[in-house]
User: What shape does this take?
Amino acid sequence: MGDVPVELRRAERLVSTVTTGAEATGAEATGATATGATATPATQARRAPAPARRRRPLTPGRAAVGLGMLVLAIFIFGPLLWLMLWAFAGVWHYPSLLPQSWSLSWWREIFHYPQLVRSVGLSFTFAPIVTLVSAVVCLPAAYAIARFPVPGRRTLLVVLFASNAFPKIGLYITIAGLFYALHLMGTFFGVVLIQLLGTVVFMTWIPAASFASIPRALEDAARDVGASRLRVFFTVTLPLAAPGIFVAMVLAFLASFDEAQGTFLVGVPNYITMPVQMYSLVSDYPPQAAAVFAVLLSIPSVALMLLVRKHVLGGALARGFELR
Amino acid sequence: MKTAIQRGWYFLAASPPVVLVAVFIGFPIAVTVIYTLGHLGGANSAISSIALHQVSSNGRFATFGAYREVLTSHSFLADLVATVWVTAVSVAVVLLLAWLVALYGRLSDTRLARLLTSFAVVPLFIPVVIGSYAILQFWSYGGLVKTLAHAVGLPGFPALGYTLGGVVLAEVWVSLPFAVLMIGSGLRSIPDSAFDAARDAGASVARATWTVLLPMNLVPTIIASSFTGISILGSFTVPYLVGPTAPNLLGPDAAQTFQSFNEPQQAEVIAMVIFALAIVVAVPYLWATYRSNSGAPSAS
Assistant: This one.
């Protein structure tokens, strides 16, 4: 029960609230966001197995925890919300706490620049391709490293790790020379390759840890009752490792979606993706334009986050980084 | 029991990512090393044909001329100090915050505690360009922090945009999720009984944390600090957008040396310095993982 995400349970309760009595929804939402210590009798009754909550006295310790949480929430979300405000701001001069006038003009404006529109399309083309290629290259290796006595497997993992420690900028300068020689500069494949490099480490490590954490006895049991190796893999192993694979694929998608430095070096001028475009927006356009673009660029990230949050918090990511 | 052919197949199955890394990361690193030592031909001929101001070994085994030039430059040394300082402070703050969040999540299994953990993980999913830009706007002159300070009568409150302090804030923001996940996952794997036993014997929460949870969760903490340190040392986007013109971190310094001054050899020397620092930071990580694995024989 402890691993069921808060949002999910809240959503379930919200659904039941909506279906049984819409008037309680408001109270429910405020109850959840305020402190969680109060709840209306209506919601209390519906939350049958939950123990009755009582208001605990406000001690200095609890006050400190509350204050700390507030500060952390502002630290994390403040900048993002501030950017959201900019996306809808018309005129906004310091030191006004809110924009002096509101406007949607940049939301229309942004789609009048063909280059910006094209960069959106390119980002959504590269990210799925890079994710798939990365999965094809890395997942069989992850399975092999987890399940078979691969000669020198510890060394393989450490080599992958070391490749992560070399600064990207230094790598890209030399790769530029290599790509010129291989005629990959300015090509679609070159961009896929450079983005792929940033995904290899976790696309191998995280699924490898997931495969390794599946008890052999489960697979052996399936084999004993007559299932073929392939069948065992697809009906037992793969579903159990799915959360780790899913997390790794989402991270690969986001890494590709986020990659700017290498894409800029290899892709210019043919393939300018959203994050590359973002650099020029930041310096050459008013804050509203950059804010609108930033909000657009965040939408897929936030959607994917909601999809994998449960598995990420459940430890699928953390397991991958403990070399075994 | 396993035949050589079988072992060969296993190796083959595990090799694609390794081959990819060897060709497109390992080989370039090797080429980089010999380039910084003054070998301008071969794989380096394309880059050296457009570069300015190179130091050549002229057929000798190696020259340290490019290193000497970079390592004695005042702007480089200022950037080096800034990089070490920002990395040290950011890692310390990230570890402290991550421990607080993870500890609260472990000890108080309430809805609120879980919500806090999900909050702390959000930056993992926000593109770094956007996070950096948002943080720059938020903490700069004209941002919310400065506006609030003005409203409560503190017009002298510093604007942290374009300062190294701002870089620390942004690096902490970007790095916090990974550390929270690592340390939180480690804490969850410690059985309740270990902590409860210390509490039953009369230890305070702080003391039980310090003497029981901290030593038992040392390996995840070291993993978190090594990865955080390495990513900050080599970071580009955060210091490029949020940091000052100079002194800034070595990542933007290397990029500028290459793109603005067209001195790839000097840029690669800077990259080698970052790499050397990263290796130092990685040593505790490798030690910790080897040590934690050498105890019990692996099941697989």
Notes: Chain A is about 75% helix and 0% strand. Residues 114-147 of chain A form the longest helix (34 residues). The beta strands of chain A are 89-91, 101-102.
